[in-house]
C-alpha cells in the first residue's frame, strides 16, 4: 500500500512510520494486522482533542452544553461524513463497496490513533481540528442537534418518568475487535442496539427506544 499523500496533506501530518497509517486503513476482514486496536486508541484521542478544542472555542458555555457539542461531532454520522470528505472511502481496505458508515467512522478514529502514536498528542490534536474544521466552524451552541441518549432522557424527564437503564447483554469477537449488544430498559420496555463500542451500542438502543416512544 503506497503512502496516502493526499490524506497526509489534508491532516497536516506526514507519517514517520507509514506502517501505522496502512494498519489504520485496514479492516479486520483483510488482515490480522488491522485497525481495531488503533481505533480503540483513536476514540480516546478524538474525545480528548475535541474536548480540548471546544473548551478553548467556547469559554462561556456550560459543561452540559460542551458535552452536547462534543457528542454531535463524534457520533457515527459525523465521523463517517468527515471520513468521506478525507477520501477514506477510497482508501480503506475492507469488503465490497459501498463501505458502511460504521467502518468509515472506525477507520477515521484509527487514523487519529495512528497519528497519536507517530507524532504525539499535539500532532493528533492538529489533525482532528483540521479534519473537523468545517463542522467546528458551523457549530451553533444555541442550536445543537442532540444525540439519541440525550433526547431520550429529556423526553422521559418531560413525561415524569425515570431515566433509562443500559446493560451490555452480549459481546462478540476478540478483545481487539470486540462489538457490543446493549439493552435499553424503560418500565418494562426493552430495545437493543449494536456497535463497535459500548457508547455506540447505547446510542443505537436509545434511538430504537425513541422510535417506539414517538
The spatial strand order of the largest sheet comes to: 1-2-3
Helix content: 55-70%
Structural class: mainly alpha
Kindly provide the name of the CATH class of the largest domain.
Mainly Alpha
The number of helical runs is: 9
Largest sheet: number of strands, sense, barrel closure: 3 strands, antiparallel
Order of helices and strands: HHHHHHHHEEEH
Shape: globular
Strand % is 5-15%
CATH topology title of the largest domain: Ribonuclease iii, N-terminal Endonuclease Domain, Chain A
| Gyration radius, in Å | 18 Å
What is the quaternary state of this protein? Answer: single chain
Number of domain modules: 2
CA(first)-CA(last) distance: 48 Å
Mean pLDDT: 89
Please give a structural write-up:
With 214 residues, the protein is mainly alpha-helical. It folds into two domains: 5-137, Ribonuclease III domain (Ribonuclease iii, N-terminal Endonuclease Domain, Chain A), CATH 1.10.1520; 148-213, 2-Layer Sandwich (Double Stranded RNA Binding Domain), CATH 3.30.160.20. 57% of the residues lie in helices and 11% in strands. The protein is built from nine helices and three strands, in the order ααααααααβββα. A three-stranded antiparallel beta sheet has the order 1-2-3. Strand 2 and strand 3 form a beta hairpin. Helix 3 crosses helix 4. The longest helix is centred in the middle third of the chain and has 31 residues, at 101-131. It is globular, with a radius of gyration of 18 Å. The model has no long low-confidence stretch (mean pLDDT 89).
Amino acid at each position: 500500500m503506497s503512502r496516502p499523500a493526499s490524506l497526509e496533506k489534508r491532516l497536516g501530518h506526514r507519517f514517520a512510520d507509514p506502517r501505522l497509517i496502512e494498519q489504520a486503513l485496514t479492516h479486520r476482514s483483510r488482515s490480522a494486522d488491522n485497525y481495531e486496536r488503533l481505533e480503540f486508541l483513536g476514540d480516546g484521542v478524538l474525545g480528548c482533542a475535541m474536548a480540548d478544542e471546544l473548551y478553548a472555542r467556547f469559554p462561556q458555555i456550560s459543561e452540559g452544553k460542551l458535552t452536547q457539542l462534543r457528542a454531535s461531532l463524534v457520533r457515527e454520522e459525523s465521523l463517517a461524513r468527515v471520513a468521506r470528505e478525507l477520501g477514506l472511502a477510497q482508501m480503506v481496505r475492507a469488503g465490497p463497496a459501498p463501505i458502511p458508515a460504521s467502518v468509515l467512522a472506525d477507520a477515521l478514529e484509527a487514523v487519529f490513533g495512528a497519528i497519536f502514536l507517530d507524532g504525539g498528542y499535539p500532532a493528533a490534536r492538529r489533525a482532528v481540528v483540521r479534519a473537523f474544521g468545517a463542522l467546528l466552524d458551523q457549530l451553533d451552541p444555541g442550536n445543537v442537534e442532540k444525540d439519541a441518549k440525550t433526547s431520550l432522557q429529556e423526553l422521559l424527564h418531560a413525561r415524569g418518568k425515570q431515566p433509562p437503564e443500559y446493560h451490555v447483554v452480549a459481546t462478540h469477537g476478540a478483545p481487539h475487535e470486540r462489538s457490543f449488544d446493549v439493552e435499553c430498559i424503560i418500565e418494562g420496555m426493552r430495545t437493543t442496539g449494536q456497535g463497535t463500542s459500548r457508547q455506540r451500542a447505547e446510542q443505537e438502543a436509545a434511538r430504537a427506544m425513541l422510535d417506539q416512544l414517538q
